[in-house]
Amino acid sequence: MTTASLPPCTGRLAGRVALITGGARGQGAAHGDRLSAEGATVYLADVLDDEGEQTAAALRDRGSDVTYLHLDVTDPDGWAATESAIAERHGRLDVLVNNAGIVHVTPIAEETLEAWSRLLTVNLTGAFLGLQTMLPLLTESAAAAVINTSSIFGPSGAIGYAAYAASKAGLLGLTRTAALELAPAGIRVNALVPGGVATPLNANEPGTGVVPETPLGRRADPVELASAVAFLASDDARFMTGTELVVDGGFRAR
Ligand SMILES: NC(=O)c1ccc[n+]([C@@H]2O[C@H](COP(=O)([O-])OP(=O)(O)OC[C@H]3O[C@@H](n4cnc5c(N)ncnc54)[C@H](O)[C@@H]3O)[C@@H](O)[C@H]2O)c1
């Protein structure tokens, strides 16, 4: 599936400035494609520098304003440098997509503190640092929207995914609390809750992953998550905050 097979873009993010973590590939790259097609100036941030530069260059080739920035979301100094770069050029940030994430599958009895802590630091602390560091720039926006990428393994448990599920449930708590704290500043904060998505993240997943429990019978194409992010980022979702947008092919309906 390609973006061309979805309903056309409407330019509803024209003039907006967006930052997407984990933007080099997978869903983050699809969000960059969709948000820039909707008119936004997009910053893709990642640790995969070659892939990130290539993703950004491909979008620039079609005329979009897309820049790649190196950012390890666990690094407070990296976040400060990202904030400075965007502040210098724009003085504000309209859309923050905390999308960067990692996964491993280990039974609780065999989990190591190191692997547990690493996953929580990337998936949960990374989003917290992003939100906290970007707050001054989000406050300058007239229509600020933050989207935190959770997972169906946030509201549901999943055998072998203790650290991942804890991080994704934590993101739902962060989302709700941030929505309450930041509503007076006009900053909306919502969670995206994907089901199985065909990306490199689950390339090594045993079997077909959650597909047997997915009523629509397949993994999502990343563009199907990107259209949900474009909605949450836009004024179409201006009365939505502190909530979850589930895009899971029916997994949670079971
Ligand atoms: N693929 C799925 O089935 C699925 C389902 C639900 C939720 N998610 C979530 O969606 C998000 C995107 O994942 P994806 O499926 O596109 O996988 P992906 O592996 O293709 O993309 C994740 C990106 O995050 C980047 N990243 C990892 N650690 C980082 C760090 N410390 N700093 C900056 N960037 C870092 C990676 O380099 C990669 O580009 C993740 O948060 C993931 O947990 C994925």
Layout: helices, strands, pairs:
Elements: E1 17-21, H1 26-37, E2 41-46, H2 49-61, E3 66-70, H3 76-89, E4 95-98, H4 113-139, E5 145-149, H5 162-182, E6 188-194, H6 222-233, E7 244-247
Parallel strand pairs: 1-2, 1-4, 2-3, 4-5, 5-6, 6-7
Helix pairs in contact: 1-2, 1-6, 3-4, 4-5
The protein binds nicotinamide-adenine-dinucleotide (NAD).
Folded structure, characterized:
With about 250 residues, the chain is α/β, with parallel strands linked by helices. It has one domain (about 10-250): 3-Layer(aba) Sandwich (Rossmann fold), CATH 3.40.50.720. The protein has 6 helices and 7 strands, in the order βαβαβαβαβαβαβ. A 7-stranded parallel β-sheet has the order 3-2-1-4-5-6-7, with helices on both faces. β1, α1 (about 25-35) and β2 form a beta-alpha-beta unit. The longest helix has 27 residues, at about 115-140. It is globular and about 50 Å long. The mean pLDDT is about 95.
